[in-house]
Amino acid sequence: MGMRVLRSLEVLKLGVVNYLDALKLQEKLVLDRKSHRIWDTLLSLQHPPTYTVGKRQTVHNLLIPQSELEQIGAELHYTQRGGDITFHGPHQAILYPIISLRDMGIGARSYVEKMELTMIEMAAQYGVKACPGQAGETGVWLGERKIGAIGVRISNGITSHGLAFNIDPDLTYFRHIIPCGIADKEVTSLRRETHSIFPPEEIIQEQLISCFARIFDYDNLIWKEDASVVIDGTE
Amino acid sequence: MALRLWASSTANALKLSSAASRTHHLPSPFFLSRCFSTVLDGLKYANSHEWVKHEGSVATIGITDHAQDHLGEVVFVDLPEPGGSVKQGGSFGAVESVKATSDVNSPISGEIIEVNASLKETPGLINSSPYEGGWMIKVKPTSPAELDSLLGPKEYTKFCQEEDAAH
What we know:
Chain A: One of its GO terms (molecular function) is lipoyl(octanoyl) transferase activity. The complex is a heterodimer. By secondary structure, chain A is an alpha/beta fold. Chain A is built from 6 helices and 12 strands. In chain A, a hairpin with a 7-residue loop joins strand 7 and strand 8 (140-142). By secondary structure, chain B is α+β, with helices and mostly antiparallel strands. Chain B folds into 2 domains: 1-34, no CATH class; 44-152 and 160-166, CATH 2.40.50.100. Chain B contains 7 helices and 11 strands. Chain B has helices at residues 10-13, 22-25, 29-35, 65-71, 118-121, 125-128, 153-165; strands spanning 5-7, 38-40, 44-45, 50-55, 58-63, 74-78, 85-86, 91-97, 100-105, 110-115, 137-141. In chain B, strand 8 and strand 9 (100-105) form a beta hairpin. The A-B interface holds A 54-56, 80-83, 102-112, 135-136, 138-139, 150-157, 217 and B 48, 67, 69-73, 75-76, 78, 91, 94, 96-103, 105, 163-167.
């Protein structure tokens, strides 16, 4: 049993980022990670109001006409991630890990389980007891209420997309979709589920990053401040 | 052709001395199905966990038992149309499981002559029968020499053990 190699994670805190800009950045980082130009990287961000569908293009789960999206201040994007339709918006903490599952020696199932655990631990810090979904209902739940969603893409063993944890987003946006294609289930948020006093949101996002780093067993976190520079630098 | 089973993945974790010794050490069928991925003789393997079966001018391609086990229950399979082509190491489709879409790469280059239409209705075939009913595409290889660069069953078994031991 030799010495374990130190596992480093580069963390980019990006603030609020347009969905397509974040997608372009992820595509570049996936290529960089695949060719070993960068370490495992974690993007921490939020999106303006955005609906997205996964590879199966289940746009039938959008309940308002696409022409009305602009009126409610939202965009719609088609993606290659797994999972059904979902909503992203301000006050929802998003993590997009760009990591090598092969180097970590785990597969999709184990990766997604750890992503669920990350959000479960996050919720627990505020006294909220959430659990993983039943079979076929990946995500993080409190009974019939979903507090965290997952949708991932794995390409040559490198991950992109990731998780979305509801701190305090405007939940009315979820009324316009059948979230994740599961009817009769509600969406909730940390705000809804606890009377705890919240620190500034940036702190909550950092806590989520720490949960991720702990569960994925990273030894060394490299925080990139002023990460908005990275977005502007992508073509 | 008789097919020999090689244990992979957990053989290393259990510190079994050789794959063939699994029958001596396993206490129950449940233990067997939980811990061991099947690796078949007579196939070639890519380190991205796809297999290829070369029979004359046709090569059949799918993903391995190790791959399906690590993916979870497959709910959707995205396959190309026949008539397209694949390059060695290039992606030809994807599978979705547990809200994750995973690209599937071709171990060899060739022309796609057939795709498994059953996977549209029954994507779970990839889990229940990764080497038979869960086959994904059939190609006409354009560079048969590429098969030599792939892993044999023993090498692939070892590769899986090493990969799983990494975490």
